[in-house]
Amino acid sequence: MRGFIPGLYTLRHGAIMNDDPRMRGFSRRADVDDVAALIDDHVAPLAAEWAELLAAGGRVLAADMTARTDVPAFARAAMDGYAVIAEETFGATPTDLRTLRIVGESLPAAPASAAVEPGTCVRIMTGAPVPDGADAVVPVEQTRKEQTGQPAPKLREERRRDGDASVAITAPVTPGRHVGRVGEDIKRGTVVLKAGRRLRPQDLGALSSLGFPRVPVVRQPYVALIVTGNELLPAGSKPDGYKIVDAATPMLMQLVQRDGGKLLTGAIVRDEKEALREALSVAATRADCVLVSGGSSVGQEDHAPSLVRELGELSIHGVAMRPASPAGIGFVHQKPVFLLPGNPVSCLCAYDFFAGRAIRLLSGRHPNWPHTKVRMPLKQKIASQLGRTDYVRVRIENEQVVPLAIGGASILTSTVRAHGFVIVKKNAEGHAPGDPVDVRLY
User: Fold this and answer.
1) Residue 126: which CATH number?
2) Do the beta carbons of residue 244 and residue 231 sit within 8 Å?
3) Which of 279, 316, 370, 380 counts the most CB atoms within 10 A of its CB?
């Protein structure tokens, strides 16, 4: 956390201040950009920790990784063939052979004991050390057995036999040909990966080749989820009577994992102020970030905003966006707390705009949207309102963007049917048919 000081953060454009005791409803709503600015100003990557190499995939490096050795650390063959002095093959053709005596064999991790001298060569396998004296490798396809004039057999099938102690070269090679040089891949002292990089599979391979058993990474944030509602049944339950099943937990679990966090869940909390107070206090103590799903609006059972204010600082409540306008953000024990609406589409929207940004920052990732983005023309218009940001679910049909819904905060299947979403910014009244728009793919 970058020096958060309660009571000092004021929003632009006349939005509510975090310490206004007279706040009623959403007569003033914060701008989406102001919420993002608040997050960026007060959320920073967590401290570094060591992670085992095999468990570091997807984590963010906390320090530069510098090569402690060359890769490869020895000159090695890039082909099956014969290690030679290149000059001795010059002028070789299928009708003007250059014959060399075989004095040894070099295999991976089993180098030849003999050095290559003028008139000699060493049989060698791909990846095996190039023997002293040799400066090139002749591929087996460019050799013949001297006695028969036939192509030399494949090296993996060949064994030393009487009369098989020499080989004829049918084509020349230049110095260094088919030889992997020392440090050809990675030079000792090179910064291979810089701090802030999210580790990909090939990055782990490079670190392994350099002999790193562990790597310093940004600690994964623990994200506590508090789901509220007297009407809710646990995720995966069968709907019963007037009860509805919790859709937030499985959805948010995947989103938090996507953004580099670890979700901590508990039992559903009833819409009772003291029960929520205890859950919020415990969560802010144990986790790096808290998500509260439900109870974020201004109804008589919406206790979350007032409790965040009592326990810490309610920075923003109410955002000029559709859906998810009841979203909010505050700080308890200097941990960010995100108020996510209970309606599932609003919950998804508020998470992606705000909570996901904070979790990515905590985990050391770039805060911007992680979705793949494509740009295509609209098939139908999108209507919006100046001063409000809209989150529009869309489908892509015949290389055109078809809007599905802007409202309908409780219709989760609008996101299931959608291929992605379009963000209509506050300074636009929508988009006309044919306008190119950016679609972020789910």
Assistant:
1) 2.170.190.11
2) yes
3) 316
Pair of tokens at residue 204: 């782990």
Residue 254 within any structural domain of the chain: yes
Task: Report the alpha-carbon distance of residue 75 to residue 95 in Å, rounded.
Answer: 31
Burial zone of 47 (CB within 10 Å; 0-12 exposed, 13-18 middle, 19+ buried): exposed
Q: Say whether both 238 and 97 belong to one domain.
A: no
> Do both 210 and 167 map to the same domain?
no
Q: Which residue has the tokens 């979403």?
A: 421
- What tens digit of pLDDT does each residue of 360-418 get? 999 999 999 999 999 999 999 999 999 999 999 999 999 999 999 887 778 889 999 99
The string of pLDDT tens digits covering residues 52-93 is 999 999 999 999 999 999 999 999 999 999 999 999 999 999
Token digits of residue 193: 């990966």
pLDDT at 21 over 70: no
Q: How far apart are CA 5 and CA 8, in angstroms?
A: 6
Q: Which domain holds residue 67?
A: 55-72+190-218
Domain count, the chain: 4
The reply to whether 163 and 258 lie within a common domain is no
- Do 199 and 66 sit in the same domain of this protein? yes
- Pick from 310, 277, 283, 312: which is nearest to 295 by CA? 277
127/398 Cα distance (integer angstroms): 50
Q: Give the N- to C-terminal CA distance of the chain in Å, as an integer.
A: 30
**Length of the chain measured in residues:** 442
pLDDT of 161 reads: 43
CATH number for position 208: 3.90.105.10
Three state DSSP letters for 124-173: ECCCCECCCCCCEEEEHHHEEECCCCCECCCHHHCCCCCCCCEEEECCCC
CA distance 292 to 272: 14
CA distance 251 to 400: 28
pLDDT in tens, 149-197: 555 555 444 444 434 589 999 999 999 999 999 999 999 999 999 999 9
Among 171, 203, 218, give the residue marking a domain's end. Answer: 218
Average pLDDT over residues 26-46: 93
Q: What is the pTM of this model?
A: 0.83
Strand 389-397 versus strand 321-322 pairing type: parallel
